[in-house]
Amino acid sequence: MVQLRRYLVAGLLVWLPLGATFFVIRLLVRWMDNSLLLVPQAYRPENLLGFAIPGLGVVLTLIILLFTGLVAANLFGRKLVSLWERVLARIPLVRSVYSAVKQLVETMLSDGGQSFRKVLLVEFPRRGLWTLAFQTGTDQGEAQKKTGRDVINVYIPTTPNPTGGYFVLVPREDVQELDMSVDDGLKMLLSMGAVVPDHPQMDAPESA
User: Fold this and answer.
1) CB 189 within 8 A of CB 132
2) Is Transmembrane helix set as a keyword in this record (predicted)?
3) In the prediction, which pLDDT does 131 show?
4) What is the residue extent of each domain of the chain?
């Protein structure tokens, strides 16, 4: 029975990661295949060839992104985007959502941005309990003035689903910065602590 259990565990270690990876990739491909809806009905692959081609939407999505970036990078494109943003700014609900998402994307994709670049250790939800968190910013704002302290913008994700979580302003002195990468931090969160990244052991103190 011990040998049988070991074989079963070994099989699970092979197939579960493969299955999860396949599921996520298939979900992304299906989501991007929806871009084919932009193509007129008569020119879609299933009508021209008689069958659908999985993943063709990924190619179309990349082409659309590259073409949009090419247009937006020149002078005419920037003026067009500016005009479009002024139109959106006149719509009450849309302007709030659009501006918030745009600032978030610009911050995360910026080379000099600080969002999700550091893994932190903070006491949450009370003193004495520690959890992993990600630094999202250190910009000075009204919160800094009202609290009178140097606070850091921190995102504390839930586990095993890191897309949900809490936004907390934590004093800098109450934050411990970890050496692990963001990828390692996500692995630890997704595994609920079962996967702990390797860390070089600290040198033992010299004996007196």
Assistant:
1) yes
2) yes
3) 92
4) 2-94, 119-190
Query: pLDDT of 39-87, one tens digit each?
Result: 787 777 777 777 777 777 888 888 888 888 888 888 888 888 888 888 8
d(CA 14, CA 158): 27
Specify the residue for token string 């959502």.
97
Confidence of residue 208 (pLDDT cuts 50, 70, 90): very low
In whole angstroms, give the CA distance from residue 188 to residue 60: 35
d(CA 154, CA 116): 9
Whether the Cβ atoms of residue 155 and residue 167 lie closer than 8 Å to each other: yes
**For every residue of the chain, which 3-state class applies, written as one string?**
CHHHHHHHHHHHHHHHHHHHHHHHHHHHHHHHHHHHHHCCHHHCHHHHCCCCCCCHHHHHHHHHHHHHHHHHHCHHHHHHHHHHHHHHCCCHHHHHHHHHHHHHHHHHHCCCCCCCCCEEEEECCCCCCEEEEEEEECCCCHHHHHHCCCEEEEEEECCCCCCCEEEEEEEHHHCEECCCCHHHHHHHHHCCCCCCCCCCCCCCCCCC
